[in-house]
Design brief:
Elements (H helix, E strand, L loop, with lengths): L2 H86 L1
Length: 89
């Protein structure tokens, strides 16, 4: 092989290495992008679940407050009935 043929071989290898590096870099960047999108989707889902949990807790708290008021009302009625019954005895 003469000098000119070696230059062609080295040039071909160089272009192959360059193209390989470009392809690997593109694949790497696409994978990073996919991972970032997946992470954003997970975070969005977690946020939605957290908001639903807070809404549910607030609803339960309102219901317990209503029940507490009803219990207080029943206790006062029961106390009134007890007083009446003691007065009758």
């Amino acid at each position: 092989m003469n000098e000119h043929e070696w230059q062609e071989v080295i040039g071909t290898i160089g272009i192959f290495v360059l193209l390989t590096a470009v392809v690997v870099t593109i694949i790497w960047q696409v994978a990073i992008s996919w991972r970032a999108k997946a992470q954003l989707a997970r975070e969005s889902e977690y946020r939605r679940l957290a908001e639903a949990a807070v809404t549910g807790q607030q609803k339960i708290e309102r219901q317990l407050t209503e029940i507490g008021g009803q219990v207080s009302d029943l206790q006062s009625r029961t106390n009134s009935i007890e007083r009446v019954l003691k007065a009758v005895e």
